[in-house]
Known about the structure:
- The protein is mostly helical.
- The protein has a single domain, classed as MetI-like fold (Orthogonal Bundle), CATH 1.10.3720.
- 76% of the residues lie in helices and 0% in strands.
- It is built from 10 helices and no strands.
- The protein has helices spanning 2-9, 25-37, 50-81, 83-96, 105-112, 115-140, 144-152, 157-195, 200-209, 213-240.
- Helix 3 (50-81) packs antiparallel against helix 4 (83-96), helix 6 (115-140) runs antiparallel to helix 8 (157-195) and helix 9 packs antiparallel against helix 10 (213-240).
- The chain starts with a helix and ends in a 5-residue tail after the last helix.
Amino acid sequence: QEQLEYQKLMGKDPGAQKSSGFPTPLQMGAAMGRHLSDPFYDNGPNDKGIALQLGHSLARVGTGFLIAALVAVPLGFVIGMSPLLYRALDPFIQVLKPISPLAWMPLALYTIKDSSISGIFVIFICSIWPMLINTAFGVAGVRRDWLAVARTLEVTPVRKALQVILPAAAPTILTGMRISMGIAWLVIVAAEMLVGGTGIGYFVWNEWNNLSLTNVIFAILVIGVVGMLLDLAFARLQRAVTYVE
Length: 245
């Protein structure tokens, strides 16, 4: 009896069932039903429903992505229409583009002193480069005969930009936005693991600290499904602005 109690104390109970630690399909189904049956519950800062956590993450991604688009698309237009400006700014873009967005997080936390806004800033940083580069590439690649027709018709610069260049470059711009959104969704999960508070990334890290692999795997599935839906939405937008010449 004493030997059996000692084995149990040391984690070597011979009567215990062996487990790989991974949840069974039945456990996963129960966890999914539990989370999806009440996705909006709020029992405190460390216990929120999956829909609330997703809402925080999507809000950060949407805000940072929108700010990046408002900066990158107009700037990309200007760069694409000016070869001189492109050559001047290209070295700075090539230096800043490879920097990991998460490398900016400590600097953002130090200067902004707000974890949520710092997360938005990181999304802005990771989203701006694909949109900027693709917009400049799309604008620079507009067919010269279309621009020549616009000059022949004495079209104003604003009208030329909106009615000639923008429709021609729109598929390439949407490609950049699609890439940026995919990167932003990847980065926000890691950023929320670092800063904590709220969001699907924090949910994953918090459940790992609670040793709940069932909830971790469920969150991974949710992250994948949401990422797929975001990509499909941008793919549909991309097809809507693409035409056959």
